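Translate structure to sequence.
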């Protein structure tokens, strides 16, 4: 049986080691991944910039989900170069072909005055609160930090905005903006689950803020108790990463479309009607926009609102939740969003269908020949306003 010393010496003879000066060059190489195999408490006190952190004990089970290509150059370090030597051998056994271990590790690196930083991490409370996210490899602690840094704007604190806001807040989206100028009415409570009996007569944005803050104190709720119009939309949406559209009228949707194209902010669209709902993502200049899909609004008599046509209360719960899911995917950059696809839900059939939606090369807002759009109030025709008015 080998002693620890013998085992370490034998292991080191089978792997490739580099010193810290060589490591500095190696970590700067294109495509190289710096892998920190120390324990979480060591990592949190300081690490190489951009290091991927997988504690030695989790290496075998996690590395293949985080470093997909087996020929990725891997620069492995620990505190002094022992754990990284064993890790390098294990990585070789797993098929990674370009692995080096840093002699002297982080301690030598830091003592020599090379660049390091204290990585941003979740607090112990956050690690517990978001533990089910962290367990999902596609999210992890890094994804959770992205969610905490993200800013999502909700157009409306109503049927669609309620479930979307609740799930986004629960997920830890750090900034949630809400635009709504209504007060809570008893007839809202059949579906607008942000509000409750105590809030009847309150401003909807205030009620929404109370509910979301009680759910998750990590969330900064920014309220806009105002009518969204041409005069304020560009200022309001500025700086948001994603917009969740729960508007129930055509002029608002076209106004939002044109403003979001100008600001290049993706919009997660949802709409509901009696037993049917739709959702899609308008990703500016990547997929179609609202005008590509619906070039002009239908006549008012063919497009009755919820207030006129009614809606089953669960329906916005389903569509608004899908909107929250798409917003989170956009933030995390995972999966296939609904950009270029319209998801249609029929509650009576209990069926989901998706339809392809293409960009319209003639689109007056996002097409190649579209002129620069000026944001202006839209009438019932909702036509975009060209920057320069045509000569008459
Ligand atoms: Zn378009």
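Result:
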């Amino acid at each position: 049986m080998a002693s620890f010393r013998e085992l370490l010496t034998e292991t080191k003879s089978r792997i490739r080691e580099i010193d810290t000066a060589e490591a500095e060059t190696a970590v700067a190489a294109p495509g190289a991944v710096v892998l920190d195999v120390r324990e979480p408490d060591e990592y949190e006190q300081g690490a190489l910039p951009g290091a991927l952190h997988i504690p030695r004990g989790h290496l075998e089970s996690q590395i293949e989900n985080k470093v997909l290509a087996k020929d990725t150059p891997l620069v492995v370090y620990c505190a002094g170069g022992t754990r990284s030597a064993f890790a390098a051998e294990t990585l070789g056994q797993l098929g990674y072909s370009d692995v080096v271990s840093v002699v002297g590790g982080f301690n030598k690196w830091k003592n020599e005055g090379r660049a390091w930083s204290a990585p941003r991490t979740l607090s112990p409370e956050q690690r517990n609160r978001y533990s089910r996210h962290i367990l999902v490899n596609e999210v992890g602690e890094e994804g959770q930090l992205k969610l905490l840094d993200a800013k999502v704007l909700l157009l409306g604190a109503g049927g669609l905005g309620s479930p979307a806001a609740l799930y986004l807040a629960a997920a830890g989206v750090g900034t949630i903006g809400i635009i709504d100028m209504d007060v809570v009415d008893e007839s809202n409570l059949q579906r607008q689950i942000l509000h409750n009996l105590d809030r009847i007569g309150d401003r909807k944005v205030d009620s929404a803020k109370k509910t979301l803050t009680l759910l998750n104190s990590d969330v900064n709720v920014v309220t806009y108790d105002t009518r969204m119009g041409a005069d304020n939309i560009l200022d309001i949406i500025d700086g948001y990463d994603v917009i969740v559209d729960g508007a129930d009228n055509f002029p608002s949707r076209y106004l939002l479309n044109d403003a979001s194209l100008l600001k290049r902010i993706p919009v997660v669209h949802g709409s509901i009607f009696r037993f049917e709902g739709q959702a899609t993502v308008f990703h500016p200049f990547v997929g179609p926009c609202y005008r590509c899909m619906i070039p002009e609004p239908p006549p008012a008599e063919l497009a009755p609102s919820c207030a006129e046509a009614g809606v089953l209360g669960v329906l916005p719960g389903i569509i608004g939740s899908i909107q929250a899911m798409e917003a989170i995917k956009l933030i995390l950059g995972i999966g296939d969003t609904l950009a270029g696809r319209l998801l249609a839900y029929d509650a009576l059939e209990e069926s989901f269908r998706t339809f392809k939606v293409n960009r319209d090369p003639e689109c007056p807002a996002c097409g190649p020949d579209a002129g620069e759009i000026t944001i202006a109030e839209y009438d019932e025709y909702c036509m975009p306003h060209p920057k320069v008015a045509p000569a008459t």
